[in-house]
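Memo to structure team: turn this sequence into structure tokens by end of day. - J.P.
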Amino acid sequence: MKDLVKDPGPVTGQDAEPAAEEAAGDTRPRKLGDRSRAWRLAVEAPSRVTLLISGLLTILTWQVPAFSPIEPKGDYDYGLLIAMARHTGLSFGDRIATTYGPLYFLAIPSTTVRAEVLVGYLFWFVFTTGCLVACFQAFQGRIGTRWAWAACVAIAVSFSAVPLTSVITATTGFVVVLAICHALGLLPKWAERSFPVVMGLVVAAMLLTKFSVGLMCGPIVLGAVFVRPGRRLREFAEYAVSGVVGLVLLWIVAGQPPTQVVDYVVRALSVGSGHAQSMGLEPTNNVWEYLVAGALTIVLVVAVGKTKMDGLRWPLWLGLLAGGWLLFKQGFVRHDAHSSQYFAVLFALAVLVAVLWRSAVLAVVAVVALLAQAANFGGGLWAIDPARSLHTFAEGATIVVSGSHRDAVQEEARAQLRQRTDIPQRFLTRIGTQSVRAEPFEQAIAWTYGLNPAILPTLLNYGAYTELLDKMNESWIADDVNGPRFIIRENTRTTLDARFALWDPPRTELAETCRYTLVDSTDKWQLLERGPNRCGGERELSSAQVAAGQSVPVPTAADGVVVARVYPEQSLGERVWGFLFKPDDLTVRLDGESFRLPWTHGDAPLMVSAPQEPSLVLTGRPLETKTLSMTAPGRVVFSVVSRK
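Reply from structure team:
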């Protein structure tokens, strides 16, 4: 059995002339067999047992669900909206603006379309199995068959233990490991020859799945193809052509307008640039992770730096630096369970350098990375369950082959959502076939009750990270042709990360106040209906320079909506730190009640007073602010948006 698992070694002179010993007679089948064996030896093709074990390992660590939108306020909301946007023919170039592209189903396939589940499952199975096979063959020559399988099992388990982001995490991790193996010449010939083309296609697919993952992987692969002497130009050309052509073709196959792929890239970059300013989160109980991540990173940088390598090193170092910086920001800007992604990639890198150096010390470093990852995502190593992975895979496969099973799964999800949301029948009757959207979350309401969905350009309110994105949403709300007829709003004052519901995002919420009136409500929900624009021009009332924490009185107006524009001050060092990592929290207080405000919305119109407006009464409290302060020094300008 051990010999079966081992893959063939390089062709030797003895292997080169097998036909010389053949008996006389009809030898055509044997010659064909000899040629096939010679080809397999030449490309170092994996054995069938290696493929079988790798495929089984993929299934036993499977963490890609065929999801139904039953989880509130999370990735399921996002996934459903992306699926709905694709199914209704909305362009991800000029109509939808997010870092999740039209191929998002490769990471989280939706049960709403069985074909997407099939494609997502096939993509992930082939990609993961192929990467595991390549890793096994690369490791085998260094540490032998048994330990090579142990290393592959450990990497697969680590990647699977990142809930709902296993594809996103594992793609980056496999790219890091395979890129270094390619630069060192460790990959089997079949993987080495296909590396530039396959990685170009993977980067293109990830740019259209989760844009930030494509940005991480792109420079790492680019650095790897520039390392090997004598083949840099060819490999760069293969990588560049396959990446660009793959991006365009996949964009078209996903049903997107060919000329708008550039718009998608520009807007995805806008989303990414504002993410740290808007979504930074820093729980005080996770400070230890910075110390562990820093120590692990230093050790691994030194270990990789001392690894002998032919050819140019600096392109790979630059690629790893760029990709690692983006990976660190993705893991620690929103410092919650996201940091487990960073530790998972560190673990894979630690396993690789332990293999390269045959070092027990570096193996201990890998164990520390795995324990840090396990501690971060909450379930610990006990959350790893091959039986559950097998069930998840089987459930998705059953949905693909059985339409009735898929329908039953969706109906069960709808029943759970109807019970949780409990939208009054009078709301549904009034809405009828008119377009409707929910805010700030619960985007499954339209799908649950069979309503006509209206989809915000940034999908969710909090996704308007920058002025550009907020203005996109504002324009859509103001559009009498495309704007929704109804809005179902949750009756709450706070949304994600203690943000104020009427500022999330500011320009969009002001546009809603100008065009929508409250027509019905319950303790949990408000129903807003579209009407003519009731707002006129904006007139400045007062301004003040304030110190951090200093309260200023909010002026009153007989009619209209009083808005505040805040201009917090930042030193050059704070701006640089905000770019390299993330800024400190900016909090605005209304009569002592604190709300988190993204830095990118500092000069936006923040509604602070309109006591006569029923649609701004949340949780029974009218919008009637007396004093305002913020946690940074700066300037505050008050204006009134008049009523027509």
